[in-house]
Specification:
By secondary structure, the protein is an all-alpha fold. It has helices at residues 6-24, 31-38, 42-48, 52-72, 80-88, 96-109, 114-131, 136-158, 166-179. Helix 2 (31-38) packs across helix 3 (42-48).
Length: 180
């Protein structure tokens, strides 16, 4: 381990946490895992952050920023096709939708993480609302659809066959929201 100034070391630890998050999921971002990823002691990680939730929150916001091009760029011509493409951009092999579902659960139990999740959820909801037409009603529909998607992802994590066809459920919900 080489000496780094305080701010650089903190940024290095956040980057290590983002790598852990992207590779292993949000629940894997622990002081020990980040220390191992960064090649430093767990004590150094603990010294730079007031707690694990602060580290997770910072890593989460950096990860969301790195992913934002995927979900913001989807907003083509508003309508069902754009909304389905929005969700398809998350339901991919690297588990981005599962990571969002994990963050939703974590925000419910870890109050220190909740503001970071709220900030990122607002960005995500606005991006989806633009796919749905951008109105206030579209914003409400976006929130409902995102919560449904998180629930479907959680159900899939509990038992892959629990919901027979999650993509079909989501497509039907999109069509229903746009028909109202």
């Amino acid at each position: 381990m080489s000496y780094l100034p305080k701010d650089e070391r903190r940024a290095d630890l956040v980057r290590a946490a983002v790598r852990v998050l992207a590779r292993d999921g949000l629940s894997a971002v622990t002081t020990r895992a980040v220390a191992a990823e960064a090649g430093v002691s767990a004590g150094l990680v603990s010294h730079r952050f007031s707690g694990a939730a602060e580290l997770v929150a910072e890593a989460w916001l950096v990860w969301v920023e790195s992913e934002s091009d995927d979900f913001v760029a989807v907003g083509r011509e508003p309508g069902p096709t754009a909304a389905v493409a929005f969700f398809d951009s998350f339901d991919r092999p690297d588990g981005a939708l599962d990571i969002w579902a994990d963050a939703w659960r974590y925000a419910q139990t870890e109050r220190a993480f909740a503001p970071a999740f709220t900030q990122s959820f607002s960005l995500l909801a606005e991006a989806l609302a633009s796919c749905l037409g951008g109105s206030a009603a579209a914003r409400g529909a976006a929130v409902r659809l995102l919560l449904l998607a998180f629930g479907l992802a959680a159900a899939r994590q509990i038992s892959p066959g629990l919901v027979a066809a999650p993509a079909v459920v989501l497509r039907e919900a999109i069509e229903r929201e746009l028909s109202d």
